[in-house]
Amino acid sequence: MAAGDTALWLHNKLGSTDDLWSGKTICSQLSQDRLQSIHACFHTLQPHVKWKGYLEEILMVAIHDTDQWVSMVGEILRTFPATGALNLELEDNNGTFAEVLTDLKKLVKKSVDVRMLPMECQFLNKTALVATTGQQPVPTKHFALKRKPKSATLRAELLQKSSEAALNRKRN
Amino acid sequence: IKLISDAGFQGEITSVSTACHQIEVFSRVLRTSITSFLEGGVEVMEKNLPEFTKMVCHGEHTYLYSQVMMNILAQEPKGGSNIRRICQELQKCANQRGLDVTPITLALSGAAAYPRACQALSSMLSKKALNPADITILYKMYSDNQYPPPPVDLIRVPAFLDLLIESLFKTSSRLNQEHKSKYMYLLSYAASVTETYKKGIRKHIEKKELKPTTQALEKVQALCAQNKNASELLLNTDHTPLHLVLVDEIVTNHLLLHQKALDLLVRLFESSFDELDVMVRLELKKTVLDRMVHLFSCGCVLPVVNYIRECHARQDTDISLIRHFVSEVLKWHQTDDNIPTQSQNQDSRGSRYNP
Question: Cα(A77)–Cα(A86) distance, rounded to whole angstroms?
């Protein structure tokens, strides 16, 4: 495919400003030839099309792009083709990123008491929960119990019934 | 816009596309939002989440950038788990908007080191449905005695655990009996296995509670699979509401599930049970209220009291039921002068602890 055609193809696939989530649709259509021609025509593309390119050489071009969004996304994806993981060492590349990150890090350290627990905590048993988040603080006490609540009596009753039933079953 | 942002007035930038146009402006608006979440906790986050999601999900690039930033912050040993929660809420909201964020989630989760597990998970999470082939791959990797299993965190993905629970417990799901034990194994593994790390290297995997957890899950699953309707479940137990006693037990043991238990009890309490005689219906509702009293006695105080007060204010609840609750509470509980009163010590447990 000629470079011009490839650029047109990319603009058609990715160029809609209404849909900024089209990465998935193009992935399956990337072949070696196509990537080579994308590489060749990359500089002619519009900014919001550029950052969708996936592989290393394209990423290098993207990283050096003048549009800061393009170069940032390129930087994030730099390690992806080789390792499958995203690049998290971004502080040297973008001043604002570093500035915001430093500010927020300070705030995060101070936020221990906020205790917004990760969602998976609801699924964990006691041991796993303590291993993941440390001891849970005891809830605020508003009342003292005068005696064991009704629910405790009910529980004891049921346990007795069930052990009797189990015993009977054994005998029979 | 850049000038407004440079001057520090991020709050003034209200249009999403304006905020997203330049990375510098976007980063600062992101900082303002995250700061408000970290300072205000779950209540503030839940309130502002729709607007936050709208901005972050403006494009795939803004979503990627925000998740990368928060992922770095989530690695802070102190307080990082707060950010992890924000990441997860964001993922959930993006999902609800029909955006497939699974590749970004997995690329950030360290799953790349386990490509086969990653692929299996990714296909199920993207389709929002489990399938025996991918479950078998995961089961084999986590039950293998020869090779070390992937980290447990890989399957501790809320969306995946939800899917497992749905397949096992939703009566409409058609689970292949042949594979059922694998689903249970994976759910038990995620719930009970702990790992010890030293300098980022896994030193020990503790599976002591895996077997009892699997066995307990098998029992409960068999009971729940019997598919009975609600009133049948509540009434067929000769004056002893066995299923509700199970809710008591869960409440006693799991602080984090208090809000979920209350939601369930409220749903039962507000069900009409039209097929029942009026008196039987009242008795049944009193039994449900007794569960709320139990929840109350386990420390879930303000959410329960607020609900009952709401019932009273709405005037749609039989007054004898309100009276029943109040007299039960007064029968078993007493205020203690040494204990701070509600106004002095605000209890926000219900929403704060509950993911």
Answer: 6
Mutate to test the interface with B, among A67, A78, A125, A129 (most CBs of B within 10 A): A125
Interchain CB distance below 8 Å, A83 and B334: no
Q: Which of A68, A118, A140 sits opposite B85 (nearest CB)?
A: A118
pLDDT in tens, B189-213: 999 999 988 877 889 999 999 999 9
Is A27 inside any structural domain? yes
Q: Report in angstroms the alpha-carbon separations of A104 from B25, B69, B161.
A: 16, 10, 30
Contacts of B209 in chain A (CB under 8 A): 125, 127-128
Number of domains, chain A? 1
Count of CB atoms within 10 A of residue B220's CB?
14
Element (H, E) at B215: helix B210-224
Residue A34 within a domain: yes
- Rounded Cα distance between B305 and B326, Å, is 10
B201 phi and psi angles, rounded to 5 deg: -110, 135
pLDDT in tens, A98-149: 999 999 999 998 888 878 889 999 899 989 988 888 777 777 777 777 777 7
3-class SS at B49? helix
Quick check: ipTM above 0.85? Answer: no
Q: CB atoms < 10 A from the CB of B192, how many?
A: 25
**Gap from A107 CA to chain B (nearest CA, Å):** 7
Domain ranges of chain B: 2-99, 109-224, 230-352
